[in-house]
Amino acid sequence: MQSDSLTRARLKTPKAAAIAGIVFSVLLILVFWLLRISVPADPNEAGAWLDRSTDRVEIALNLIPLAGIAFLWFLGVLRDRLGPIEDKFFASVFLGSGLLYLAMLFAAAALIGAVIMAFHAYPSAADSTTFRFARAAIDNLVNIYMMKMGAVFMFSTSTVALYTGFVPRWLALLGYALSLVLFFGSAYVDWSFLLFPFWVLVASAYFFVDNFRWAHRPETGSS
Fold this sequence. Notes:
By secondary structure, the protein is mainly alpha-helical. The protein is 80% helix and 0% strand. Helix 4 runs antiparallel to helix 5 and helix 5 runs antiparallel to helix 6. It is elongated, with a radius of gyration of 20 Å. Residues 1-11 have low confidence and may be disordered.
């Protein structure tokens, strides 16, 4: 009876992690793509995008809370999968960096939404110093702090994976490589912000395949 309960828990958790991670990855990739094609990368741009691209930006901003909920679920089921073998030090780092990444994503979205609302109320604000300050703050928050927290999350999670073996070695090494690119090259590599959701997508795909294998593995009996 106890072994049946453990088997059901093992089957359920990776599937939940896969669903949550895939939803988060797809939504965040879509959000980043909409923002990238709508908002110029140069923070000193005069604000012409506010006249022509706010519809796409507002769609992206409305998707961010959904992605955040999926990411929280993904964090929870990752820790549940680790269970008693979770290392408290590295688990605290990966959990803290993941929550900080999500908090900065929400803060950046709130700032972008505030810029759009201010423009709709006062179109001349696009030429003001306050607008340029807000754009610079968003750029620094996303490209420096948020990206660095994403790199720390991948690095620490990959370290936990190597110690515990809850994901294959190649996936942990991929996390190391992408985290280094994100940590040191986020300001120089175009579209580097997609590396974090890409890695979560790959990890979630592995969880899904692993769950499929367990679901089709013949039973060995129960006690």
